[in-house]
Amino acid sequence: LGYIAENKIRGILEEISPGDLLRINRERSTILDLRTEEETKGGMIDGAVNIPLDELRERLSELDRSKTVYVYCRSGQRSYIGYRILRSHGYDVRSVSGGYILYQAVMHP
Question: What is the pTM of this model?
Answer without folding.
Answer: 0.89
